[in-house]
Amino acid sequence: MKKVERVDALFEFLRVLLGIIIAFALCVVIIVIMSGSDAGEAVRNFMIGPFMTKRRFGHVMAKWAAYMLTGMGMCFIYAAGRFNMAGEGAINLAPMPILLIMFGTSFGLNTMPGLPKIVNLIIIVAACMLAGAAILMVPAFGREHLGAHEMVTSTIMNMFCLYAALWILKGTITDRSLSFLGTPKYPANMRFTRYWNGTNFTGGFWVAVLGVIIGLIVFYRTPLGTKIRLCGDNLQFAIYSGINAKRMMYAAQLIGGLFAGAAAAVEVFGIYDNYYLTLLTNVGMDGLLVAVMAKKKPIYVPVTAFVMAYIRQAAAVLNANTNIPIELVTMLSSVIILFVAAEEFLGGTRRKVIFKISREAEAKAQKGEAV
Amino acid sequence: MLEYITNFIYSLIRISTPIVFVALCSTISQQAGLMNMAAEAMMLTSALAGVLFSALFQNVWLGILCGMACSVLLALFLCFASFVMKVDLYLMSISLNMSLTAGTVFVVYLVTGTKNTTAGVVQSLSLGNVNIPFIHDIPILGAIISGHNLFTYISLVMVAVVWFLLFRTKIGLRIRALGQNPRQSNPLASAPGKSTPWRLSWPRPSAVWAVCTCPWAITTSSSVILLQTVALSVWPQPPSAMACLWVQR
After folding, report:
1. In DSSP terms, which residues pair with A194 in a beta bridge?
2. pTM score > 0.90 for this model?
3. What CA–CA distance (Å, rounded) separates B89 from B78?
4. Of A143, A245, A316, B184, which sits most exposed with the smallest number of CB within 10 A?
């Protein structure tokens, strides 16, 4: 059996590797055809563009942090067999309570600037996490108590979150001296430090790393994680073995919300100098893609999150430096996702090889029996 | 005041037309036990293809046919990706949505040189409005239900057609059986991955609603349509597609 498993793992590795190589080759061919003269430049930008300067790599790091958190959250929700996508809207709405405190109360205006930075950041991340959890609880409540499909309600929730955030912003804490809709600048000790001389690589990355570690431990090494996974794998079995399935569903979506809120904190208080989001950021949706690409296993989330961040940043670099429109690159990134996620890619050969090995082993065993 | 009310109900019916079609699409795939999240991508593609091909051939029906063909192709691609290549269905749908939201803009950019609109560059056609002979003359009723785009009337016919397809034909029975229990319906065909309903359940919905969406969808906000559709597709019966008349607004 050992040999079969080894071959299986080898094919899994080959599948992903070949998938990525083919997808990138395909993308390069299309880019060369579309861009004409400056083909070499385009390919160079697309392949190694994100690593060429500190600034660009900072962008990758910022996206990586956010994708790791949302991807991890989606893994929990997925593991419970739910499909709550309100994490997308949580990025916009979850920072609102803490922003209201920061710019609307005497505690935020007078006390918080005097506090040490680490305390402020803990307050910010905790508030965002709680708000994110509260947001994801709405579709969860609809599903578990009222029977409304959580995918539908959470999709609609995203639009609600966007406009609710804009409404709150407009009515209360917007800075009237700005020519656009946004809050005043965050005070220096109420935001994540930018590293590398002001790039988007911020202290929020450590929040993401911490989140991934905690997420992994909870998912694989605690009774809570095991129960959640059990509910997703086989609901009937979970119920008959005495697990309170409804509570586990809530718990999974609550954890997902906490992660989405943390991602919101990292995104809003890391990349931006003030809050001026007027569109959905797509971080939540990309987090969903990250989770599915990781086959819903949190252990792979850091890797797939990096791939995703790299793809997105390559698209941006290519758009900025060449005459290739960003739309084309966005299309190509879905080709990459297709090849990475295609489970039946090389499936025929894999089965053939494994069958052959198994038959040989069987024949050997029978011969041994006969002798 | 009376005119306001009749105008309001008239526009209610007018706006809900594309939603009826895409709701029918979702209803069929929901009945087959699948959630067609790529409807957004299919609509966008069909809409663009309808506009471009109707301008190319200067024939509105050919344009519509090409629009339909495009989203059937897309549905087949989705089938291939998720049933043959075993990509996660949601993953593929979402990435299709994202890529074609961008892709349609890219094609518009290639054709017209701007990213905003095809108006002015592409001489596309559209189906005209239809006045129903006798009803047109009835005072209030005539103003409400007459004078709509031809697609509005087609959409109403399509509701009945889809109901018939799902509940009165063999293929409909298979689709529903498969949706309720994929394993139980194995006797109908050899394996779930290879049985006909699995394959047919995808192209058909798109064929049905792509009829409509070509010239229409480009004028309406398609994300709203998707939301409404998904909401409606939770209800199993095709006539519920009619309910979007009331959901809208």
Report:
1. A202
2. no
3. 8
4. B184
* Number of alpha carbons in the 13 Å side-chain half-sphere of residue A96: 23
In this prediction the ipTM stands at 0.73
Which residues are CB-neighbours of B120 under 8 A, at least 6 positions away?
none
State whether B99 and A151 contact (CB < 8 Å).
no
Query: Nearest-CA residue of chain B relative to A147?
Result: B234
Contacts of B219 by beta carbon, 8 Å cutoff, 6+ apart: none
Question: CB distance B87–A343 less than 8 Å?
Answer: yes
Q: CB of B86 within 8 Å of any CB in chain A? A: yes
* pLDDT tens per residue, range A19-66: 878 887 887 787 777 766 567 777 777 778 788 888 889 999 999 999
In A152-171, the residues whose Cβ lies within 8 Å of chain B are 152, 155-156, 159
A339 interface with B at CB cutoff 8 Å? no
| Of residues A258, A340, A319, the one with CA closest to residue B106 | A319
Q: Which two tokens stand for residue A173?
A: 């804490």
Q: Do A325 and B109 touch (CB under 8 A)?
A: yes
Confidence class of residue B220 from pLDDT cuts 50, 70 and 90? very low
Q: Is A58 exposed, middle or buried (0-12, 13-18, 19+ CB in 10 A)?
A: buried
